[in-house]
Amino acid sequence: MILNKNILIITGEGSYSIISKLIKPIKKYKIDIYKAPITISAFITKEIVIDVLKNISISDYDLILIPGFVQWDASILEEKYNIDIKKGPEFASDLPQILKNLEEINLSCKVPANKLIEISGEEEYNNIVQNQLKIAQKKINSTSFYINEDKSSIMISPHLPPPIIAEIVNCTEKSNKTILKKVNHYIKSGADVIDIGCVSNKPHPKRVNEIIELIHRNFDVLLSIDSMDIAEIEAAINTDIDMILSLDLGNYKDFLDIPKNIPIVILPTDIRNAYFPKNPKVRVENLFKLTEILKGKGFQKLIADPLLETPISPGICNSLDTYFLYRKMVNENNNKEMELPLFFGISNVVELMDIDSVGINGLLASIAIELDVGVMFTVEHSKKLFGGVRELKEAVKLNYLAKYKNTPPINQGITSFKAKGKISQDKPQINVSQAVYVDDTNSDYKPDDKGYFRFYIDYYSKEILVLFYSNTNELLNTIVGKNAESLSKKIMQLHLTENISHLNYLGRELSKAEFCLHTGKPYIQDEL
Questions:
Q1: Rounded distance, CA 341 to CA 528, Å?
Q2: Contacts of 439 (CB under 8 A, 6+ apart)
Q3: Residue by residue, what is the 3-state secondary structure of 312-344?
Q4: For 145-159, what is each residue's pLDDT tens digit?
Q5: CA-closest candidate to residue 194, choices 224, 220, 232
Q6: How far apart, in Å, are the Cα atoms of 143 and each of 104, 136, 173, 337?
Q7: Angle at CA of residue 175, ends 169 and 177, nearest 5°
Q8: The pLDDT of residue 144 is above 80
Q9: What spatial distance separates the first Cα and last Cα of the chain, rounded to whole Å?
Q10: Distance CA 61, CA 82 (A)
Q11: Which residues are registered as beta bridge partners of 479?
Q12: What is the dihedral of CA 34, 39, 40, 46, to 10 degrees?
């Protein structure tokens, strides 16, 4: 869009004072506000805008912004008056961001400006990744390489956002159906590599072979194996595995004859002999030692895992210190040849905290991007982590975009909010003296003669299940849908209930179920 100098904002009476305050700090443009004769901005019609334009000198303006919530297309008015008439944001609180980034946003007659910011953020991220991919492809070395060039364009490189490995925990003990369901979910969530998590001290090489073949038959996806058992790793290699997790000082000698072009994660430990160093410098020196040995044996794609540990006990700060120290030491002249991509296993952090995962994933992603981490590893093993791969993917996008633009990870057009957000609804002026106050809920319950409902969520299929029973507990109807509105309308069409109290309850529970479906929060009927 051509840089606009003079802007007219048309709004309703309720938003006028709010917008007036919000635009005061913006000096880049000359901005006027016109208060239309209607209380709620979203109800402004084409006819109201036409009347407004009759009362102003249109030639004084380069751009006219109408509320983002209006439900009509402004292109007809653009043609009629030969001036840009575009939709602003849906919420007044987004207006400063829109105005500050006006040159980068191609405003629309149909789509609210805040939606365009989201779209433009995603497009900008994809464009940057494609450009950086071309750079990475020209600089193949020990820190920048394909995971498996024959299968995929996915690379590990300091130029690119880290690929995400999503582990199927205890995979060798799961059924084929469960494995395929999990793989499908992970791929849809944005995982780049699916990890076959084996069971410690219970090797099952034949099952490893079966699982790899099963996934390869059904999906085109890169696979890694998380095992330190010789037989399981050899079985995985023989079945075309793409990455191995992990070798350490205790087991590396068993694998010196494996193909040298398979990416391998190395650890600063000797698990066989229960050796797990705590000192950050010792960990880094152990990684350097193993790097030198394996490079000397011809291994081409190594990834260093300094080990990210659980907060409080044993403590995350010590392990983060190891990551920072590794970065510092490889930048020293005598250690340049030791530099490898870093492995960032966040599951030890997210899984072992009773805190919503979205914020933890966001913070860990920012640390990973600052450290130029090569690959991130996560799981969705427990209920509280469902949706974590998608959360991490969005957080990586946000932080990668911010790093590329050398700015904090805010106002990039990509967000990872679930429970909270940046916008608020404008509250009208009300006379509270005339309000009806409700002291408590009505606890009187009268059963509906027609029956009762039970609600469930299938998080994998993204569906809400409504089961309607008679009062003698006979299942009468099963209704499946993806949102509360369509389900409630269908229930009313089927005349399953006409009881006002029951309909009120139905709407409340369906709305809660839909919220839980989209946020990953566990849904339990009749509980807040």
A1: 44
A2: none
A3: CCCCHHHHHHHHHHHHHHHCCHHHHHHCCCEEE
A4: 999 999 999 999 999
A5: 224
A6: 34, 10, 35, 10
A7: 105
A8: yes
A9: 47
A10: 11
A11: 466
A12: -60
